[in-house]
What does this fold into?
Amino acid sequence: MNTLKKLLMAAVVASTCATANSTELLNNAMQSWEFQQYQAQLKQEIIDTHNSYQTYIKESGQVHTMAPAAPLSSFEIRGAISTQYPQWEFVTESAFSTSQNHGGNELYIVTREVGYANPASRLAKINGSNLSIIDTQPVTSGNLVVGYLVIWKYPHTNFTSGSATASARSINFPNNLEDDRLYIR
It folds into this structure.
């Protein structure tokens, strides 16, 4: 019985440490100067592409809809970070693959969407496994929302390489599907 208790305590401690390390990698990476600059660049790309949306953010920080918004016009995978390459690797719109080798216990990607996706339609997968949304940030031009940046997490701890796909469907007419694919080395 005493051995069983020790094994259970060891498992709890290991699990707690893994969760703390997981949060630490993403938090440190999102706070880095390079990521802040890249995030600003992605937001500016969205603002420059579309500037006549109908959703706005009040001073209180709440998002409110005024009228029908422009359809989703772009949804792209634009970066990756992993335990093996622990800083954001930023990828261009036309990239087919990351240039760095990623892998290890954690993997995150960032997608950029221009326009309005139906939140329930957002989907990202790597090697067939669904990723979970960790953070969704509205991109604004003045007080108008013009797009979103979304951070996704790979659910497994054994990533080596594979094909990432991401897609979303426009929240309004023409309800088009936008998607992207990126090979993560």
About this structure: The longest helix spans residues 2-31. The longest strand covers residues 132-141.
